[in-house]
């Protein structure tokens, strides 16, 4: 089993703004979909709020202490550990052997000590935001692939899609 973090981060460590993404990168969203499809995904309640619907073709697991969320097609966990247990129980019917932690900052911070794969989109700009990636130490990781993408006119940022494994 692999616990993977999937994240997009600017050069100054920003991952979010006003409970949304501070960029519009359709190419990265396509990569996100292709990478996570068929697998369990774990997200924090604020990220759930920002997405606003279950992502299709994946078991959506929402971490919250409130127990107030109701929606068809999702599972609720009251801690990151119970979210992981739920995700593991879904692996039998999943596409592969991989659990994805899809954010946001609070959940990434809890996931990093356990993660052994990082799908990191490096947004090659300094971006204004209010949420920063925490718990990521580049020295703990070795980059195994790195593909460059030039900004489409609608995107505004060049970016690199990287895969890193824990050293
Ligand atoms: N760039 C990227 O790749 C990326 C990916 C995902 C999200 N984001 C961005 O990140 C931002 C959101 O991140 P965030 O850090 O503010 O919020 P978050 O991590 O998405 O969610 C935080 C919430 O998760 C719940 N939670 C966290 N730890 C918990 C625990 N141990 N046990 C139970 N519940 C727990 C709490 O929910 P309750 O308050 O309900 O108890 C908490 O308020 C947004 O701007 C979003 O767009 C960026």
Give a verbal description of the structure.
With 167 residues, the chain is α/β, with parallel strands linked by helices. It has a single domain (2-166), classed as Dihydrofolate Reductase, subunit A (3-Layer(aba) Sandwich). 22% of the residues lie in helices and 32% in strands. It is built from 4 helices and 10 strands; from the N terminus they run ββαβαββαβαββββ. It has helices at residues 26-36, 45-51, 80-90, 105-111, and strands at 2-10, 14-16, 41-44, 60-63, 74-77, 98-101, 117-123, 131-132, 141-149, 159-166. Strands 5-4-3-6-1-7-10-9 form an 8-stranded mixed β-sheet, sandwiched between helices. A two-stranded antiparallel ribbon has the order 2-8. Strand 3 (41-44), helix 2 and strand 4 (60-63) form a beta-alpha-beta unit. The longest helix is centred in the first third of the chain and has 11 residues, at 26-36. The protein is globular, with a radius of gyration of 15 Å. The relative contact order is 0.27. It binds NADP nicotinamide-adenine-dinucleotide phosphate. NADP nicotinamide-adenine-dinucleotide phosphate binds at residues 7-8, 15-16, 19-21, 43-47, 50, 63-66, 78-80, 102-107, 110, 131.
């Amino acid at each position: 089993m692999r616990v993977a973090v999937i994240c997009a981060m600017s050069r100054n460590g920003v991952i979010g703004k006003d409970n949304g993404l501070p960029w519009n990168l359709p190419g990265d969203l396509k990569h996100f979909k292709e990478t996570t499809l068929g697998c369990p995904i774990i997200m924090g309640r604020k990220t759930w709020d920002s997405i606003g619907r279950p992502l299709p073709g994946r078991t959506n697991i929402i971490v919250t202490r409130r127990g107030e969320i109701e929606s068809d097609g999702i599972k609720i966990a009251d801690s990151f550990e119970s979210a992981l247990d739920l995700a593991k129980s879904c692996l039998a019917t999943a596409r592969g052997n991989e659990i994805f932690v899809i954010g946001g900052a609070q959940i990434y911070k809890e996931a990093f000590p356990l993660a052994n794969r990082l799908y990191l989109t490096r947004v090659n700009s300094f971006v204004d935001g209010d949420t920063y990636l925490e718990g990521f130490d580049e020295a703990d990781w070795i980059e195994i692939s790195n593909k460059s993408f030039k900004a489409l006119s609608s995107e505004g940022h060049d970016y690199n899609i990287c895969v890193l494994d824990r050293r």
